[in-house]
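Predict the 3D structure for this chain.
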Amino acid sequence: MSSWFTYTDEIGPEKILYVYDPEVGMKGIIVIDTWSLGGAGGGTRMLPDITTGEMFGLARAMTYKFAMLDLPVGGSKSGIWADPSLPPEKKEAILRAYGRALKPLLEAGVTVGPDMGIDSRDVDAICRGAGVESKISGLSLQEKDGEPMENHATGYGVVAAAQAACEFSGIDIRGASVALEGFGKAGGGVARYIAEAGAKLVAVSTVGGAIYNENGLDVNKLLADRRGKGDSAVTEYPDARKIKPAELFLLPVDVLVPGARPSVINEKNAKKIKAKVISSIANNPITAGAHEILFTRKIQVVPDFISNAGGVMVAVVDVLGGTVDDLFKALREVIPLNVKETLTGAREEKIPPMMLAVKQVRDKIIKQRRREVETPSFEELIAMLKKRLKI
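Done. Predicted structure below.
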């Protein structure tokens, strides 16, 4: 846990708070990247090996996602150092203790949501511990095929971004080969909508291992098996060759989908990437140096805070009183448009798409903070968003 001042820049982070409850052994952190815009929000992650740097990067990604949607809200990220598979009573105690520690922040307008190791029920436990009402309601709690709407939205958005990038590159998504890192909540959504788009999932990985079949994997079987077998649905899949998880990034595929942890594509492997398009589920899966290398090699990389904005879109459409149909319509229209504008601008300015997108959102955030642009009232914001999303 190094000094948080090493992460500061012209945007933030405005606050990094470590919390501890010796009675139940809760050790947690919250990073508030930007709060001065009018509130802050982001998911909560429970894993034994989170880091301050990781939490900062994820909070910054949330800031960028909100900015891409023209929302005057800052990004934050919460983390708890613990195994998410703890016995229910132990996990509940830790979550409640975490909520008690964050009570002043939650009462002041910071919101928390699900992320790795945390679901909507866990968020409810955090809020019960703080004595505040959970903001998760309505649309985000609806299910489709037994999966929360957020999982569908994130997966659908990643695929919509991939399809737009493929079109930009002259690739037909129908028949395109796809390698997917991660087969959890959002990864399952990507697999489902990749298949619906007519693409071919040829490789997938979990924490247990990875498999590859150049002729394609049976997505329906994998999804069905995952419900009962979890991660072993992949490792026990019969008609595929087992590979090392790191090999997945180097396969000869059209589309690569990083879906787990940060910096998996870096200066060490970026020159070996064979994919033509990268559309990410994960936040910050590509290092800055790797972005430069990939751009030089003419690999189209969708900035991750554009491709994986589906979860944020659920919350936005929920606040607007929209329906499931409104959500998918918004995803179809907003994400591909942002992808095409960013890739086109990057080509014209001869800089990586991530660099362009970051510059654009930073300029927007700084102008909002300096009040160089008028921040709309809540009612005006709702009207603007409804018009933009056609709800």
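The chain is about 45% helix and 15% strand.
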